[in-house]
């Protein structure tokens, strides 16, 4: 009973972070399951089965608060489901240990870009509201879905920073669209795992505990992401990506840093992250009216089927 309660609390906390920042549910939940001795395939299967429910509720909540771009959901979600099914089906014969450090470097680079861009430049202005093309979203979805299944998490860490880095979709809609499209990924991955390892290797009590916690947190997170300033949210997301992937890289066989080195680097990251959040919030307050106007113009242009540039060039 104590273990189920702990899993429910982990599910609640993980979904609160995931729904607010667009990542971390799978990584957090899978890490705990691996720590208590669950094999990788069963751990990932458990998390993805729970995510069918949490992502459904999260998607509906984000839609209710206006955080979803349905074109993005379809363009990235369907390819993501294909990648997730492939990753789940072949997890037992595919090792991601060698690729993990390389993936951490890629994500760390994206995280640094997002972190610096939002902290010091605020909401990207030049590209906001322009459409995200299928030729960008489809390959991104396949890769993110595959990593998500084989690593027990990765849909948000891969998809969220890549879309944020494009500067074409504001943070809350990036997070809402990624969370909503993950419903398709979770279904495909779960089917792949059941085919690959069978349902007898999955503890459905653990699935239910993670699900209950996540369902409680999903509407709260969807409300939070709408009220957190975009500049602060971007800096927060960037910090999560940097911290998570720095940890993966420092623990990898490529570096294998000592405890002292790792903790020193973590301390520097935490201090820099806190300072960046304070700075981003102060700059947001100074430029609040301008950023709100940019978002309003982008939303109006999207509703009219135009880019902001097209809207500006249309005669009155």
From TrEMBL:
Whether Cell membrane counts among this entry's keywords is yes
Question: Record's InterPro entries?
Answer: TM_pro_TauE-like (IPR002781), TSUP/Inactive_protease-like (IPR051598)
Which is an annotated Pfam family here? TauE
Question: Mind telling me which GO cellular component terms the entry cites?
Answer: plasma membrane
Transmembrane portions of the chain: 40-60, 72-94, 100-120, 181-198, 204-225, 262-281
Lineage top rank: taxon: Bacteria
What's its membrane topology?
Multi-pass membrane protein
Q: Where in the cell is it found?
A: Cell membrane; Membrane
Main location class: membrane
Q: Indicate whether Cell membrane appears among the record's keywords.
A: yes
Q: What residue ranges carry the coiled-coil annotation?
A: none
**Keywords associated with the record:** Cell membrane, Membrane, Transmembrane, Transmembrane helix
> Into which family does the record put it?
Belongs to the 4-toluene sulfonate uptake permease (TSUP) (TC 2.A.102) family.
The name this protein carries in UniProt is Probable membrane transporter protein
Q: Output the lineage of the source organism.
A: Bacteria, Bacillati, Actinomycetota, Actinomycetes, Micromonosporales
């Amino acid at each position: 009973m104590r273990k189920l309660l702990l899993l429910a609390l982990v599910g609640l906390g993980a979904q609160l972070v995931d729904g607010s920042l667009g990542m971390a549910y799978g990584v957090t939940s899978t890490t705990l399951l691996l720590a208590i001795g669950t094999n990788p395939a069963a751990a990932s299967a458990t998390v993805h089965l729970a995510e069918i429910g949490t992502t459904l509720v999260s998607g509906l909540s984000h839609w209710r608060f206006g955080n979803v771009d349905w074109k993005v959901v379809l363009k990235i979600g369907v390819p993501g489901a294909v990648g997730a099914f492939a990753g789940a089906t072949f997890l037992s014969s595919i090792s991601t240990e060698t690729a993990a450090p390389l993936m951490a470097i890629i994500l760390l680079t994206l995280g640094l870009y997002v972190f610096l861009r939002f902290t010091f430049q605020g909401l990207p202005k030049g590209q906001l509201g322009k459409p995200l093309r299928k030729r960008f979203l489809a390959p991104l979805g396949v890769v993110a879905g595959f990593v998500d299944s084989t690593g027990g998490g990765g849909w948000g860490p891969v998809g969220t920073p890549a879309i944020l880095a494009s500067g074409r979709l504001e943070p809350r809609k990036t997070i809402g669209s990624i969370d909503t499209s993950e419903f398709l990924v979770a279904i495909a991955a779960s089917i792949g795992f059941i085919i690959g390892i069978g349902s007898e290797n999955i503890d459905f009590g653990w699935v239910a505990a993670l699900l209950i916690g996540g369902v409680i947190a999903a509407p709260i997170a969807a409300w939070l992401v709408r009220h957190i300033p975009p500049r602060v949210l971007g800096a927060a997301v960037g910090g999560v990506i940097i911290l998570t992937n720095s940890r993966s890289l420092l623990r990898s066989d490529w570096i294998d840093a000592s405890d002292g080195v790792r903790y020193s680097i973590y301390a520097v990251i935490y201090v820099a992250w806190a300072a960046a959040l304070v700075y981003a919030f102060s700059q947001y307050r100074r430029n609040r009216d301008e950023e709100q106007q940019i978002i309003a113009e982008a939303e109006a242009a999207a509703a009219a089927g135009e880019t902001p540039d097209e809207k500006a060039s249309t005669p009155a």
